[in-house]
Amino acid sequence: MPSTSTFTxxxxxxxxxxxxxxxxxxxxxxxxxxxALIPEAISFSIIAGVDPSxxxxxxxxxxxxxxxxxxxxxxxxxxxxxxxxxxAPLAREHGFxxxxxxxxxxxxxxxxxxxxxxxxxxxxxxxxxxxxxVNALAILIFLAQVPQLxxxxxxxxxxxxxxxxxxxxxxxxxxxxPAPLVSIIALTALTIGAGIAVPTVGDxxxxxxxxxxxxxxxxxxxxxxxxxxxxITPYAIAFALVGLMESLMTAKLVDDITDTHSNKTRESIGxxxxxxxxxxxxxxxxxxMIGQTMINVKTxxxxxxxxxxxxxxxxxxxxxxxxxVVSDIPMAALVAVMVLVSFAxxxxxxxxxxxxxxxxxxxxxxxxxxxxxVVATDNLAIGVIADTITAMVIVARRVAHLVTVxxxxxxxxxxxxxxxxxxxxxxxxxxxxxxxxxxxxxxxVVIDWARRTSGxxxxxxxxxxxxxxxxxAARPSRSSASTRRARPCTARSAANWPVAxxxxxxxxxxxxx
Length: 513
Prior knowledge:
20 helices; alpha+beta; transmembrane helix; 513 residues; Membrane-Transporter-like; transmembrane; four-stranded mixed β-sheet; SulP family inorganic anion transporter
């Protein structure tokens, strides 16, 4: 009988988010995040000094694009306070067209940095700098709200206090609906129903009534183009660095919460692509949002890219369909939201007396310097870069003094063995050369590198020389470590050195290799 063969079609697996339970979770999570995004996007637009539609467009395009090209599923990217603070001076001094050009250039820089593997450098940013960065961001967001509470009608103040009270007490009843959204709805209904005349979102600018359309930044493309690039490049670099730092920190936080790993390099490149697209669609740019991501991942339980995509989609639907209602939102409600966000963002544990008592002085100094530099310069990137370098110098200075040299004199007194222990690099080597006793060395000196922890070992396990044949003044660069005095033996004579009790105790440094 002829042999028969069977052919089995490959089984197609259904995406995880198509499961009815997962789909319901992702859709509800996207809706809740979209509702919570509206007040924050408008508030960040006001901080940046642009129309509310600019922040809303940015939140829409960032969320939709990053859901496709990003490296961390379920993380929310939109217009943020950090980005708003970076671009606000440029928008105020040079206009909206220069802001859009900065967003596009900043996105291109992020793509380049992501391709070069900048995500791997985040491990060199100390935690003290991270804490200072977060605290400085919270202070800047709070200071940006102060002008909205000066020279305003008296009714603004009770509305502001009422908004804070609602956002503090409502989560104790339920966390299904974001408390900021409840506060905004309640205060808006109160001002409209009672006819209270207070500044509203509509006074700040017109909300969008249609989807954004692509365009080119309104900037000169003539001989002045070089001047334009020179002008916006510092802002674009700060934009790229701040966006990447916030996004990568948020991605790491989501990794810890979900116990999964994300592609940080893809996320870095994805942030750049999303910002380039956002710039051409007239948005102010953005990055990952810690607060909204926590709502999506921790509160709502979302785990896939679908929730991020739906958050952006629902956001634009709410703006286009319910635009007139959003225009009547009182500014006091948004100020209350941002003040609460600033207080929630600040790491109060980091400044608690008990914490400060346990922290090393160097880490406290770096954290304080980060906050001072960021608040003084109004530039998050400058503060983080400057204080990362400061922290590295402090660590290098601390490690440089951890190298020790221990001498061991043979019983016959003809040889001394120096054992080098600790981190050996350019800073510690400067002290190492002063830790050998030239005057009292016997004829034969052995330097044992077995316990040093530098990355590259010498060709020979020991360096030997006769100190009497080579005077201390002649110190070759490669063998100088074998010609100098050990710190533990300062002012010691050969008679006071530790002596090996027998031949077996004096041999391991010579025979173990």
